[in-house]
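Good morning C.,

I know you're traveling, so I'll keep this short. The sequence:
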Amino acid sequence: MDGQGATADPQLQHFIEIESQKQRFQQLVHQMTEVCWDKCMDKPGPKLDSRTETCFVNCVERFIDTSQFILNRLEQTQRSKGAFSETMSD
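The tokens, ready to paste straight into the viewer:
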């Protein structure tokens, strides 16, 4: 290697970023499916009854709300750490 790894092709970096986002999204969907299936599915059958369907909808909505809350909280924490470390270095 010639040490140019840090200046990789912007298109390649963008592709890797998109693929990483896809992978995170797929992991999130898998996790959400697992959680909501365990919570809502009493007895698998050929059709969902309205109670089970409502449970799935509510579960997915709460899962998304919770995930969004956690992401927002992490972003706030990162920003406040950044601001704190800037004031410490002055």
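Safe travels,
E.
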